[in-house]
Design a protein that fits this description.
The protein has a 7-stranded mixed β-sheet with strand order 3-4-5-6-9-10-11, sandwiched between helices. Strands 1-2 form a two-stranded antiparallel ribbon. It contains 5 helices and 11 strands, in the order H-E-E-H-E-E-E-E-E-E-H-E-H-H-E-E. By secondary structure, it is an alpha+beta fold. The N terminus is likely disordered. It is globular. The chain has one domain. Helix content is 24%, strand content 19%. Helix 1 packs antiparallel against helix 2. 40% of the residues are buried. Keywords: Signal.
């Protein structure tokens, strides 16, 4: 499976630098901000021009598409997809994983509100093919809080407790077309699993291993919409059927944050 990884994952590929830690990190609950146990960055200072170009590209791909927010009063009024995706990319450069196929997965979060995350996937042809808004991703492993959810009973209790607080996971994807969704959905699913571990997973760690095994069974509900439905919101003809496909066989520890 490691042959799928073209590089050792840079946190700054946009800047032309590539590096990764040889020592897997631990996973803290990121709701308060970036993972405090993430490996230190060994990348060069990012290019401001490259980051701006990335954000501009997201806005160009999203066009005039709109979506509804899963949170509070904002949910009543559609917001631009571009604004929501960009809000989840406040790290310069964004975290990313490049695969041997040439596909690159980018992700980030909103500073101070890390439950607001975004993902973007660049296809083999070099263009962004899929954008995603992820809210309230459940955290199954946290060394800081001592949480290690490794069975369905514990997960159901945790999900119910979060729901009482109004914290329900929402995964909303926007794809260029059905083919783009089908090809890249397994990558999103694997990224979600890595995210539920807090990223920087070390599945050889006895404390994390049972959670790594269990997270493979977790499937979060996903909504998908066509980006071509610019300006019409996320209803009606914009909705896309979400195919049933397994997550990509990428090592969970490959997603470094």
């Amino acid at each position: 499976m490691n042959r799928l990884i073209a590089t050792c994952l840079a946190t700054a590929l946009l800047s032309g630098a590539a590096a990764c830690s040889a020592t897997p990190g631990s996973n803290d609950d990121p709701t308060a901000g970036p993972d405090e146990n993430a490996a230190p960055s060994r990348t060069r200072a990012p290019s401001a021009d490259a980051f701006k170009a990335f954000i501009d590209e997201i806005r160009q791909v999203a066009g005039g598409a709109r979506m509804t927010s899963p949170h509070g009063a904002e949910s009543a009024n559609p917001i631009p997809v571009a604004d929501r995706i960009v809000a989840g990319f406040e790290q310069d450069p964004p975290r990313q994983l490049r695969l041997e196929s040439g596909v690159t997965i980018y992700w980030g979060w909103q500073q101070g509100q890390a439950f607001v995350k975004s993902i973007a996937i660049r296809g083999t042809g070099g263009d962004l093919q899929l954008l995603g808004a992820i809210d309230d991703l459940p955290m199954l492993y946290s060394r800081r809080s001592g949480r290690a959810i490794a069975d369905q009973t514990a997960y159901d209790a945790y999900a119910a407790e979060r729901a009482e607080r109004g914290s329900t996971p929402a995964v909303t994807l926007f794809a260029r077309d059905d083919d783009a969704l089908a090809v890249h959905l397994p990558l999103v699913q694997r990224w979600l699993q890595a995210g539920m571990l807090g990223f920087n997973a070390d599945c050889n760690d006895p404390a994390q291993r049972p959670v790594c095994t269990f997270v493979e069974t977790v499937r979060l509900p996903i909504d998908a919409y066509a980006l071509e439905c610019a300006g019409t919101g996320t209803g009606g003809d914009c909705e896309m059927p979400v195919p049933t496909v397994p997550p990509a066989p990428i090592p969970l520890g490959a997603f470094r944050q």
